[in-house]
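re: ur question from yesterday

yeah so i grabbed the chain u mentioned. its 386 aa long if i counted rite. heres the sequnce exactly as i have it in my notes:
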Amino acid sequence: MPLFLLCSFLMIILYPVGIDLYLVAIPRIAGDLQASEAQIHSAFSLYLFGMATTVLLGGIIADRHGRRPVVLAGAFIFTVASLVAADASQISQFYLGRLGQGAGAGALYIMAFTVLRDVLSQERLAMALSMINGVICVIPVLAPVIGYVILSRFSWQGIFMTMAGISACCGLVNLLLLKETRPATSRPGLSFALLRSRPFMLLSLQTSASVTAILVYVSVSPLILMQELGFSAEQYALSMMAMAAVSMSASFLTPLLLRRLGKHRVLAAAHLAYLLAVLALLCGWQGGGDRVLLMLGFALVCIGFSCGFGVAMGAALDGCQHNVAFASALLCIMQISLSGLFIWLAGWLGVRPVVMLICALLLTLLSYLAARRLLPCPTARTVESK
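ran it thru and got these structure tokens back, copy pasting raw so excuse formatting
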């Protein structure tokens, strides 16, 4: 298990690194490429589009030809794309690099879940995903700091060279250590049968709603804290570091809770945390922006996601041994699509940040209740891929 955890961690780490490491350099990149900061920020959409274009194809290839080719190809693409972005002299080349980074990160992202599902039982998979999630929670805090350190000694191109080095290291470690995990009984030709599986689709909705809630939290927290509550940039950074510590602690505590309480109760407790977060945010909002209640709501959101996401992902992938890579790809696409649609729609409607987060949490609770109603034991049912 430690070996597969190491390989999977290196696969999944490139996704957040590709997002957070270069943020501190956006003004310099914009100046050197003679582009607006808005144009540089729009490269984030291309990054996500690159992910969306490769996850499905990568899943199909992995189920047909094995996991290792997709892992190595994803690391290679990310490395080359990072070098392309580092060498950019105009915005179009930078866009191309970011698109390629997303493509490589997408392939590696779904392979991390796929490889762990291949080699672990559902119980150990939930524990492994919780531990990985705990480490990942630290990246949004550390990445801007590391980016600042690099930028203080080198040009912004050094940040993308660092990304290339990380992805090359990922490819090398997986080349040397990762064994092929594709089951001999895989039947990739029947992958689309998953779309007709009620358990899989309901559990996919549940995980997608959780991802939507955490992404909405990430996107609206600076608006709530800095614009509405008047936090300084330093106060906001310290608050987010505290929330990252809460997430990391909850993630590392989850394996212990799984042993003591079982999957059903841990998942129920995670959604109880979401419900309490809704109440705290409502009371804080109605109380004229009570800082304590709002921060308590943020902490409960972090706890709910950290405790429940690994369990829900493990349940969704359980029983998909014939096409687990394709299932991972579908989950990734659903998570990106639902969160993107929700954030876009709420922004278009002009929903206030606190209300947007409350609505996302209510969506998460409704998806959980729907799964409980239609699947009496959602974390124990086997997903039939026929």
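noticed a couple things. Residues 198-228 form the longest helix (31 residues). also Confidence is low (pLDDT under 50) at residues 378-386.
anyway ttyl
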